[in-house]
Structures are given as C-alpha cells and as structure tokens.
Amino acid sequence: MGNLPRSVVSRKPTDTMRIILTSFAGVLFGFFIGVSFPTLSLTKFNLSSSLLPEADLSKLEGEKTGILNVPVSNAPTESPHLNDTSKIWVSSNPRGAERLAPKIIAAESDFYLHKLWGNPSEDLTSRPRYLVTFTVGYDQRNNIDAAVKKFSENFTIVLFHYDGRTTEWDEFEWSKRAIHISARKQTKWWYAKRFLHPDIVAAYDYIFIWDEDLGVENFDAEEYLKLARKHGLEISQPGLEPNRKITWQMTKRRDDREVHKETEEKPGRCPDPHLPPCAAFIEIMAPVFSRDAWRCIWHMIQNDLVHGWGIDFALRKCVEPAHEKIGVVDAQWVVHQSLPSLGSQGEKYEGHSPWRAVRLRCRKEWFIFDDRMKKAERAYFSSMGIDPPKLKSL
Ligand SMILES: *[C@@H]1O[C@H](CO)[C@@H](O)[C@H](O)[C@H]1NC(C)=O
Ligand SMILES: *[C@@H]1O[C@H](CO)[C@@H](O)[C@H](O)[C@H]1NC(C)=O
C-alpha cells in the first residue's frame, strides 16, 4: 500500500470541524422561501402535523445511540394502527417513511443545483450522469484544475476540502458549478461515507472517488467509461504509469490492451489467481464505481476506516464474479505523482514523526477492519448453520 492518505494535511492543529455546504445552502434557502410561501395549501401542513405525534420517536432515539457497527434492523414494521384504515402505513416503504403514500416518497437524490426563483421544472438544463469527487487542498489547485478539465459537462464535480479553503477556488470558472464540501483534516473515505450515501448519489451511473495528486495528461473520462462499459467493469481504475516503485503489479498500466483483469505477482503473493492482489483488485487512489457496486461498498465502509487501507482487498465482496467485474483500464491511464507535502501529515504521536504516525494509524485501522470482517462473516455463517469457509485475511 504505497499511497499515503493525502487528506490529512492541515497547517493549523485545530480540532474544530466545520462543514460548509456552500451550494446546498442555496437549495435550503430556496426551500424555506418555498415553505413560507402563502399559496402552499395549509391543509397539507395540518395533515403532516397530525401525523407527527404518532411517530415512534423512542425507537429512533435508540437507533441513534449506536456509535459503530451497531446492526440496524430492517425487518418490516407492523402498522401501529391495526384497524384504522384512514391512516397510511406501508411497511414496504423505506424504513421510517411508512406513514407516507408511496407515490410521494423521494428516496433518492442527486447533486443537481436548483434556482431560487422561477418554475422548478425549468431549473435543470442538464442532468449529468456521472459524478467525480476530488479530496483537495488548495495547494494542489493547479493539478485539480487540469484534472477537472478531463471530465466533460456530463459530470457533476464535488470537491471535498480538507484545508478549509473553499472560496479561493472560484478563480476557476468550473468552481462555480462544483459542489464544495469542507471539513478540516478529514480523509477521502471519511467524506465518501458521510456525503456520498448511495441514495444521495443515485442519479449517477458511475462515481469517481479520486485523490488530488493524479496526473491526467493521458486520460479522458468519457473514453474511460466507454471502455469500462464495454468490458463490464463495475469497479475499476485507470492504469498507473510506472514512474516509480509500484506496490502492486495489478494497477500497472499495460500498453498492449484496453483493459486487464488479472496479473502475475511476486512468487507466493497469490495462492488463488482469481483473488487479490492478482485479480479482483484495484487500489484506493483512483477508483471508479458503478452505481450498484457503490451501493454495496458504501455499506462496507466502516465509520472509523478513514484512511481506507484494506478496503481495496475487500471490494471484491461487492461484485460477482469479482475477477470479471473488477479491472484496470489501460488505454486511459494516469500518473501517480509524488507530492512533497505527503511527509508532513498528521501530528507527532507517541514519539513517532507525523508521517509515521499517520502510517501506523492506517495499518491499525486495517487490522480493525480485517478483524471485524472476519467476525461478521463467521457470525453470518454460524447463524445459517453453515461451517464457515476458511476465512482469508484481507
Ligand atoms: C379496533 O378498533 C376497535 C374500536 O375502535 C377497538 O376497540 C379495538 O381495540 C381495535 N383493535 C385493535 C386490534 O386495535
Ligand atoms: C455527454 O453525454 C451525451 C449523452 O450520453 C453524449 O452524447 C455526449 O457526447 C457526452 N459529452 C461528451 C463531451 O462526451
């Protein structure tokens, strides 16, 4: 795992977390204007408020107290008003929305920007089908500017800012149509878990969750997706130009093909040629997920797995057969640049340099994740009365 998490950089050791959803604020503002507008029928409000007191709040409270990995029951819920047919209760609705008529439920959303005025149906002049996110610090702005230009107008652009600097990006024309999300000193997987819920990004066929230090001279996103589609890749990454020591053979670009799905590794690394790191494997620096694959992976990302080490070995659990649906696109490739700022991430910890402290943390998270995965799978198989297959470490 050669790639250090780039998202931990910060100059000020402040712990205060600030989240600015610049663009969402406009949408919210519009919403409040909307709900306070007098032509909205009052009866609608009466209806919803008459439903409110019946909400089973105590149940919700209980679910919220879980910090990590508390299993949430998805069992169908029974109607609390059994013989009152004037009340709505649809147990197949999304959990918590049983009191709504199914046809009014908007369970999914997108990042499309709306206007504060005019006719809502005229707000969207286009509906991008793809999403790309970069986790960025302002120092890397020129690299990101170059990268964003490789993504057509068919992409929604989301920037996750780990250094608190957001408005400065408006020097770039595209920044004004991008979504900016700011939370200091957080990592790519932290943002992804919190802001890319599969229901929120449901509008997008493919999702790119990329680092900020990729050289994209030989990359075009639309061409990339053509190849991903053609070869049935649900989880993929562009080939890496081997400009320095590459950790895994799998992600190294081949110049004689469009994509590859398996590789040879050092002797002993791959007891099973269909398993990582020889197949069913990509790294975490520049992953591209189909909508369905992301829906599964989002659920696998643990809230404390912020650096993401180890997730690359587990991606295969989300697609079947993994050695056919995970691969590397060689014909559109990127360069993994080494950034000088990498060594100064984090803070000194227990006598370790900041750089080393971050790296140790990456490994620690990986062990925790690996252990949890094994325990969860063991628990599953034993609950099914099946002898667990020999569980491999990630
Ligand atoms: C059904 O309604 C009747 C009359 O309102 C009530 O007495 C009865 O307890 C209700 N039955 C159930 C199962 O809730
Ligand atoms: C954007 O998507 C449309 C519809 O798929 C396609 O026709 C168009 O070529 C795409 N734009 C670019 C720049 O590739």
UniProtKB/TrEMBL annotation:
Gene name as annotated: LOC116209779
Top-level taxon in the UniProt lineage: Eukaryota
Protein name: Uncharacterized protein LOC116209779
The keyword Transmembrane belongs to this UniProt entry's keyword annotation: yes
Residue stretches spanning the membrane: 20-40
Alphabetized UniProt keyword annotations: Membrane, Transmembrane, Transmembrane helix
